[in-house]
Amino acid sequence: MLYIKFCLYQFLLFSVLFVLNIRLDQYISRPFTRIDFIAICISVPVLIIIFIVISKLYRPFDVIRLRNKIFISIPVFILSVFYAGFLDSLF
After folding, report:
1. Rounded-to-integer distance, Cα 45 and Cα 47, Å
2. Which of 13, 15, 39, 83 could disulfide-link to 27, CB 3.0 to 4.6 Å?
3. What DSSP character marks residue 67?
């Protein structure tokens, strides 16, 4: 059950990061303008909050070995890329 919960958390994490990256990437480009600065000011606190919440959520998974975490994360990463691409094509 711990591994399934870890898979779900990883899927949620990767999906949120991909969707945020896809949505905010169109606003941040060279040369940096005022809109780029505003997008960065919005995205940085959101990412910091996400990482703080994730660090608290991942504490029960310290018992899983790092090797197993990596082997679980690779297919979940691939699935979340497909899911984020699917969401991007819908909207």
Report:
1. 5
2. 39
3. H
| DSSP labels, 55-75 | HHHTGGGGGS-HHHHHHHHHH
Output the six-digit token pair for 58.
Answer: 């991942």
pLDDT one digit per residue (tens) for the chain, 91 residues: 889 999 998 998 888 888 777 776 666 666 777 877 887 788 788 878 878 888 888 888 889 999 999 999 999 999 998 888 887 777 6
The span from the CA of 84 to the CA of 43, in Å, is 18
SS3 breakdown of the chain: % helix, strand, coil, rounded to 5?
A: 85, 0, 15
pTM: 0.70
Domain boundaries, the chain: 2-90
Contact status, residue 47 vs residue 20, Cβ threshold 8 Å:
yes
